[in-house]
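We keep the chain:
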Amino acid sequence: MKARYKRELNHNYLILEEETYEETYQVKMLTRNRIPGFLECRVSRLGERADFSYDITSRQSLSLVLERKRISAEEFLNLLKSLERAAESCMEYFLNTENLVLDPDYIYLDPDGWNPEYCFFPGEEEPMGEKLLGLAEYLLDRLNRQEPEAVTIGYEFYRMAGEENGSLEELLEKWKHLPEKESPEAGKKQPEGPTDGGTVFLRPEKKKLILKSEDGNWPDWQVEGDTFLIGKKKDAVDGWLKSRGISRIHGKISREGDCYYLTDLNSTNGTYLNGGRLEVNEKARLRPGDCVGFADVRYVVEG
């Protein structure tokens, strides 16, 4: 599906495009009701096609939230509860669960809580079985492996999602009656990196990026990894800014090869490059001498 992002006044939107639009009863139900478990949606028709705009203001995608943390057992169970809530809403409003989008990039939640909300998109074509397996595989790689219960839940969900011709309703019904089991992987320590005969291969040192605070009131940063998150939610970011105008997860600096890029992450008060405000999820290349702004906090790029 085609996706883009848009900012309007104090609201941010994820927009999914449907090439051939038809106003069905499902669309009417979606746009005329505030449905529990769903992102609020509006539809704009543009000739034969239509834009479905989902309000993601003050929320972050599941994929972004899990960039800097591992999912716990409690969070995994809350995710399953959210799926159950979405399935119940589909039944109540006569909607087809096959149209739920389960891509982690398009599942949104409040970073301070674990109550995910979903896009209901009539143009969704991927079979539910494939979506569930894809989500299960994604979560399996992001389990908190220091927590045996999280590992057990993750592997059970993966096993059940892999069953042939699975539907969301069937999986949730089986989950309710699932006996407690121990995962064979629980408690296993994962290797830190590639080894060969006991030798650890070190990666060559990569170029670093320095961000210097313009007025000295904020810490300077040295960006070394492939992703550097900025915001005021201390346990979820690399660059912590305790400022009123900063969003919990505000922006991101990412490295691709020898180049660095700045991205706005659905911030309320904006991410700026050389005075220009970036659009939501817009990625712009950084160069030495650039002025970077997170709300009213300013940095100069060095290196």
